Amino acid sequence: MSALLRRLAPLPFVLLAASVLVFALPRLTGVDVPRAVLRARTADAVPDPEVQARVAAEFGLNDSAVVQYLRWLGAALRGDLGFSFVTRQPVAEVVGDGLAVSGVLTVLALGLAASIGVPAGVYAASRPGGLLDRGLSAAGIVGVSVPEFVLAPWLVLVLAVGLGVVPAVGWGGPQHVVLPVLTLAAYPGALAAQLVRAETVEVLGRDHVRLARAKGLSPGRVLWRHGARLATTSVTSLSAMVVAGLLGGSVVVEVVFGIPGLGRGLYDAVLAQDLPVIQAATLAVVVVAVSAGAVVEVLALVLDPVARNREESR
Amino acid sequence: MRAWLGGIAAALLLVVAPLALPDPVATDFGAILAPPSAEHLLGTDQVGRDVLARLVVGARLTLGTTLLTVLVTGVVGIAVGLAAGYRAGPVGGLVLRFVDLLAALPIVLFGLLATLVLGPGLGSLLAAVWLVGWTPFARQTYQLTVAEAGREYVEGAVALGAGTARVLGVHVLRNIAPALVAHACLRFAGTLLTVSGLSFLGLGVQPPTPEWGAMVAEGREFVFAAPHLVLAPSLAVVLVAGAATALGRRLG
Amino acid sequence: MGRIGTRAAAACVGALVALVALVALTACGGGAGSTGSTGATGTTQPDAALAVALQFPPRAAYAFDADDGARLMTLGVAETLTTVDDRVQPAPMLATGWEQTADPRTWRFTLREGVTFHDGTPLTADAVVTALSHVAGVTSPPRAIRGIGFRIAADGPGAVLITTAEPDPVVPLRMSSGNLGILAPSAYAAGGQPTVLRTATGPYVLDAVNGTDSAVLVRNDSYWGERAGAATVTVRYVTDPQSRALALQSGDVQFAEGLPGASLDQLRSAGADVVEYPAARTVELLLNQSAPPFADIRVRQAVTAAIDRPVLASQVLGGAAAPASDLFGAAVPWGATSPPSGADVERAKALLAEAGHGPADPLTVRLWTFPNRPEMPVLATAIQSMLGRAGITVDVQVGDYAAREPEILAGRYDMFLNSRSYLSDYADATSTLTSDYTCGGSYNIDQYCSPAYDALIDRLPGITDPAQRQALFAEAARMLTDEVVGVMVVHPLNTAATNGATGFVADPLSAKPVLPGLTRTG
Q1: C460 contacts C224 by C-beta, under 8 angstroms
Q2: Which residue intervals of C270-374 are DSSP H helices?
Q3: pLDDT digits (tens, 9 = 90+) for A26-49
Q4: From CA C363, how far away is CA C356, in angstroms rounded?
Q5: Is the predicted pLDDT of residue A216 greater than 70, yes or no?
Q6: Calculated CA dihedral for residues A154, A156, A160, A161, nearest 10 degrees
Q7: Would you call A139 and C26 a contact, using CB atoms and an 8 Å cutoff?
Q8: What is the reported pLDDT for C448?
Q9: Inter-chain CB proximity C7 and A129 less than 8 Å
Q10: Which of A198, A211, B125, B195 could form a disulfide with B182 if both were Cys (CB 3.0 to 4.6 A apart)?
Q11: How many helices (H) and strands (E) does chain C have?
């Protein structure tokens, strides 16, 4: 576990850098924050400079950027993430709720993607050129090529309207999770299957595997011990990338299915220049993504003895 | 050989075909959302423009920018991944965490920022995608490099006096190339989807320039009433992605 | 090598097969999608539970100084002193009568008797004073009472006095604004944002809220007026129009609003009752009059002549809008109802030539718009094409509104396609006519300045009679059309549909509650 700690050690520096980035980027867009917040709150087409000035003073936006940053950082370190400019709700609540929802979806989607993608890829690699391989190729290509906002309405039409097995919109029960998870799992699942297949085929062609076969090891055992393990490291590393994308980026799925997740919350906050929410939500996603990356690397060590040797010899 | 010939033929077709097809930006308000017919082989869109013409002309823009993006982000990402993975340890780990950090930042933010600095249009879309698009390559390269660097042949090469650049470029890269290429071909489709998603949000090419991702976004409203609007560019993406994957396997 | 080719081909065929299968399935799915009874037939079930899909979630946790107050009014939860009737004149709600006192700056509102809040406390003058003083004192008060020197005081237990800095004939109309809902004094006791659960007066009680996702309403059995149509209502906020239509089709909800034009036929064939009605909204093409080329009225007239508004409304937008001939349209009694004529490209070319932009010196302009409403980029493209036929080259730029607003307000643009909801907070057009078109207006994007127009608008504060005011609105709109202050393109239509419910009443002004009239059927 010292490996894990070693990897998590740079986390504070990364978070500090991230905090500067998430603080600076929204302000660099040059959009007038009080005006954007008021437009988000009240659909006010007509600007009102007097009210905007009052709002700017209320949010402390007239101070210099450095002062604002230090003030925000100090409060955040004390656990106070402030209040949303638009809704006036505590940011910790907003981000926490969104993270929980998106977290559930992410975990379920990745789980589904891995549990279908990895075995599919391995089996396809064991029978290259066969019917299963070609079928999976086709499904995989479709999975990585169809955008979410095309897949989602069709899934809804088929499963919710046509067959009536799941509700079309809403959130709150297990039945509401089916469609969004299916939509979100399509791309990572197809990606995983493709990558696993490619890696397994490549590994199975290597000398040490051929040697194992020549020594009499059964095909199944060879497949799972050697091919699958190395392939899984590639998949787990990609999972870390996909986690960040799913957590903060599944805006389209959340909008289409009406899910109160972090992706939609962040998107709305960016459009409304709701600075406290943007900063806190992005930092939350960064923390999760970076930690996931570290965990994944350790998983790779567990799975791949060669890498483990190298690690230990250091 | 057949694949190369096919590719050249397709490229020629892309250049020549627009001469035979209707103007992709010519509107026809009398033939709106028309289904495929003899006159419009793939139907028309919401303002009466011929879908096939827009598909063919849009192919140049879409494929060109996607290819360019994959190349640029691939080169940068692989370089970073190789360097960090070979010298893994605290420095390598720090770089990887920064890679994760950059990958975690929402692309909408970058898109809006780019739009302000460069004005709305394809340039700002590309800037946003290039800023973060290299991170998947960096991560995968790092993982693979770490795995490869412990192998005997690398130690052998170093013992024989090979410099770092030679070890990385010749030995390591050659062995991890198949997986990288497979990934790059998959990133092609992924980049297409990212561009489509950003077009969905209003960044990217400006009307009336045709572009596959924007066509899918525009046609989304009519996905049930006039499915050909979404099916045509989606199928095009699927076919291209399939070809890219096949190419990846061929090279891998 | 042959294997690779075969595999790629197989992959392609497989992908095609998968997509075709999906389309075939959806075709079957669409046919089997008719669930439940139609809106009209079937017996009503006043004690059943109702589910609805609304398009705008609360922006700020139901705060009254955000437009969420208007949401609460639409839901049938909160009520205001007055409402509007079909002639866009104030009608009683929590106040039964009103009059200007001897001092013309003060109005006296008589409160309705026997009204209790959802928490059991009675509606008194003090409660009204607490409620309206609170909302007038926040950082950003509702537009209806902003900047008029609003003061309120009780006048005995059953009436309140509202005073403004200047005599104001529309105070009763201002009080109909949804953001001026009256909540029980207990709601304001904690300070900060008032609590909205079980503190209002309307036919429905807000029983539970789930952020921007959903809310649960329960019938108020001690309501002073007509009983609500359902025992409980589950409100789902669904921001995606297509998803709302699908929820209605699948039977998840019995009422949905804001449906995409492309789905209406599908919904009708699935048995839903679909209603399209006017909205107080105009898509306007604003032309920068402060600089060439649009400083010349002939160029503006050429643009008007080149744009075929009936075609835009009926064909490009598929009937989801009505062509506009003035600022207001059919949503209000004083709006123009006769449609504009189609395009006259020859006349456009002639006007352009007269203004010095003939074929030898063609005009090139930029057209800006934003993507937040799906019809805007489509209209921009169509307008680009129409103007192209008249010899004007248009360069379209679609981008985020917030980033561009400073440029537009400063008059550094050529053409801007905007979507304007012209009744900003209460059913009186004065504020829009002032802010958008007077010389000193804060939203005068056209950069229009006409002393005659300003003089016309200056008469409004002195006119109390509603019919006279509405006649002045129409005259102002005519002046804007004559002087070609921008081109009014279309009026988008509102849509709503019921599938298993009845009782929907269309309200173009969006000023009256929608939900209390709905009852489950079948």
Answers
A1: no
A2: 297-306, 309-311, 345-354
A3: 887 778 889 888 888 887 778 888
A4: 9
A5: yes
A6: -60
A7: no
A8: 94
A9: yes
A10: A198
A11: 15, 21
Confirm if C44 and C227 have CB atoms less than 8 A apart: no
Binary contact (B116, A297; C-beta < 8 A):
no
Q: Cβ separation of C384 and B208 shorter than 8 Å? A: yes
Record: contact C15-A138, CB cut-off 8 A: yes
Best probe of the B interface among C378, C398, C413, C417, by most B CBs < 10 A, is C398
Element (H, E) at B60: helix B51-86
- For residue B208, say if its preceding peptide bond is cis, omega within 30 degrees of 0: yes
Chain A residue numbers with beta carbons less than 8 Å from the beta carbon of C255 are: none
How far is A291 from C120, CA to CA, in rounded Å? 52
**C93/C76 Cα distance (integer angstroms):** 12
C partners (3+ CB pairs within 8 A) are A, B
Instruction: Give SS3 for C500.
Output: coil
Which residue from C5, A197, A188 is spatially nearest to B247, judged by alpha carbons? C5
Q: Residue B96 and residue A293: Cβ atoms within 8 Å?
A: yes
Among candidates A270, A289, A306 on the partner chain, residue whose Cβ is nearest the Cβ of B103:
A289
Q: Which residue of C has its CA nearest to B31?
A: C315
Say which of B151, B178, B217 has its CB closest to residue A202.
B178
A288–chain B nearest CA distance, Å: 9
Smallest CA–CA distance, residue B121 to chain A, in Å, is 16
pLDDT in tens, A130-181: 887 888 877 877 777 777 767 777 788 788 877 878 887 777 778 888 888 9
Query: A32 CB near a chain C CB, below 8 Å?
Result: yes
Q: Whole-angstrom Cα distance, residue C1 to residue C7? A: 10
**What ranges in chain A are assigned the alpha helix state H?**
2-8, 11-28, 33-42, 49-58, 65-77, 91-126, 131-145, 148-155, 178-204, 207-214, 219-222, 228-249, 251-257, 262-272, 275-303, 305-312
What separation, in Å, do the N-terminal and C-terminal C-alpha atoms of chain A show?
A: 15
Q: What is the DSSP letter of C332?
A: S
The contacts of residue A234 (CB under 8 Å, 6+ apart) are A195, A196, A199, B140, B143, B144, B179
Give the Cβ contact number of residue C358 at 10 Å. Answer: 14
CA atoms within 13 A on the CB side of C115: 30
SS3 category, C419: strand
3-state secondary structure of A197: helix
Residue C360 token pair: 């030898």
Does the pLDDT at position B192 exceed 70?
yes
Both tokens assigned to B135:
């991170």
DSSP string, C429-496: THHHHHHHHSTT-TT-TT----HHHHHHHHTGGG---HHHHHHHHHHHHHHHHHTT-SEEEEEEEEEE
pTM given for the model: 0.84
CA atoms within 13 A on the CB side of A61: 21
Contact state of C399 with B115 under an 8 Å Cβ cutoff: yes
Interchain contact, B218 vs C318, CB within 8 Å: no
| B contacts of A288 (beta carbons < 8 Å) | 104
